[in-house]
Specification:
The complex is a heterodimer of chains A (60) and B (310). By secondary structure, chain A is mainly alpha-helical. Helices cover 55% and strands 0% of the residues of chain A. The relative contact order of chain A is 0.06. Chain B has 2 domains: 15-169, Orthogonal Bundle (Tetracycline Repressor, domain 2), CATH 1.10.357.140; 170-310. Helices cover 76% and strands 0% of the residues of chain B. The longest helix of chain B has 32 residues, at 171-202. Chain B is flat.
Chain lengths: 60, 310
């Protein structure tokens, strides 16, 4: 036997689940946004091993 | 099995009930003052970091509200103003309020530390501790000066905002703190003057309950007079300027005039007109704080365009 009729309780539970889902999605978006801002800061990234062409010893 | 019995809990909480635990109206003041704290600071901050930091400060403030509702459920159930909150109304259990409060507090502090810096995070952690342990658990039920010392919790957000930008504490942030700190007693006691019966019933030792309304009126005047030099004084620091000074002088004169009027009134007069002066003083106090911080924001904008500094 299934519960065909939707009770107010189901609506409330759906609203709650939707709310928690949206909050979690927003949290992920904020952490991702912060990661971008903190790592980029308007410049391109380079790893510490990277040697720019100007710094290479061209005499060899 | 052919028979099924289902218990439908009509009191089951919706998402809004959990959100109400965070005291959204108090949160709006926290958001505004913290935002002003960040924006008036002399160090530019990336807009997304500002957004995230203010959000985490607001969540931290909201979490302390949830912990307050967890601890104060017995008091809230007896007062008309708070009877309908999710815990006393039975929609959210005390354990749930506690769990949400603790989890969000920890999350907000750690995330503010990562988003901004750990000075700001430390201040937020201290604010939550101060509101929950010092004010809610200790002062509120013990002394009629609960709101004076407890008001510090509401005064920290602009200081945290300032720390988000500068990574420290300075005269300007202490002055913003002081303005809210000194503003809280007259603001809240004005409310108590026309909500006295609620506090008497709940056994909360508000000044109106322990020392009477005459003394409360005198205290409102005293704190309003002490507040004025601090609020106007902020205008002479680098975050102030002629515009802020003009706004602050007018607001403080008006606020003192209101406090004097309350001090001169007796209970017969107040009851005769349904506490009209007390209610209007309370409403003006909200405007007073909002306009002070708006004026600071305007000054920051003017400074950006190279005008307005003293």
């Amino acid at each position: 036997m299934g519960l065909a009729r939707e009770h107010d309780m189901h609506k409330r539970r759906f609203g709650r689940n939707l709310g928690v889902g949206l909050v979690l999605a927003a949290f992920v978006a904020i952490v991702f946004g912060l990661t971008l801002v903190k790592t980029k800061r308007g410049q391109n990234m380079e790893s510490y091993e990277h040697v720019r062409p100007a710094e290479q010893d061209l005499s060899k | 099995m052919s028979d099924t019995s289902i218990r439908i809990d009509t009191q089951e909480a919706g998402f809004g009930d959990y959100f109400a635990l965070l005291k959204p109206r108090v949160m709006s003041l926290v958001v505004f003052t913290a935002l002003v704290g960040v924006l008036v600071a002399p160090v530019p901050v990336h807009p997304f970091v500002v957004f995230a930091s203010v959000l985490f400060i607001a969540i931290g403030g909201g979490a302390s509200g949830a912990l307050n509702m967890w601890f104060d459920a017995d008091i809230d159930a007896q007062m008309k103003r708070t009877r309908n909150r999710p815990v006393p109304a039975g929609r959210v259990t005390q354990d749930e309020a506690f769990a949400i409060g603790i989890t969000l507090s920890a999350m907000a502090v750690v995330m503010l530390g990562l988003a901004a810096n750990f000075v700001a995070a430390g201040l937020l952690a201290f604010t939550i501790f101060f509101y929950v342990v010092i004010y809610t658990m200790w002062l509120k039920r013990w002394t009629p000066h609960n709101i004076v010392i407890g008001g510090a919790a509401g005064a920290f957000p602009p200081m945290i905002g300032w720390a988000v930008a500068t990574g420290g504490i300075s005269l300007e942030s202490v002055l913003m703190f002081s303005v809210i700190f000194m503003w809280t007693p007259p603001h809240f006691w004005a409310l108590c003057l026309f909500m006295n019966n609620d506090y008497t019933k709940a056994g909360v030792p508000m000044l109106t309950v322990t020392h009477g309304r005459r003394v409360t009126r005198a205290h409102i005047l005293a704190y309003t007079l002490l507040l004025a030099p601090l609020a106007v004084g902020a205008g002479f620091t680098p975050i102030g300027g002629p515009f802020y000074l003009a706004v602050s002088v007018i607001l403080n004169l008006w606020f003192i005039k209101g406090a004097l009027a309350l001090w001169r009134r007796d209970e017969n007069q107040a009851e005769a007109d349904g506490y009209r002066a007390e209610k209007s003083f309370f409403r003006f106090s909200l405007l007073y704080l909002f306009l002070h911080f708006t004026a600071l924001l305007v000054e920051a904008l003017l400074h950006n365009f190279g005008i307005g500094a003293l």
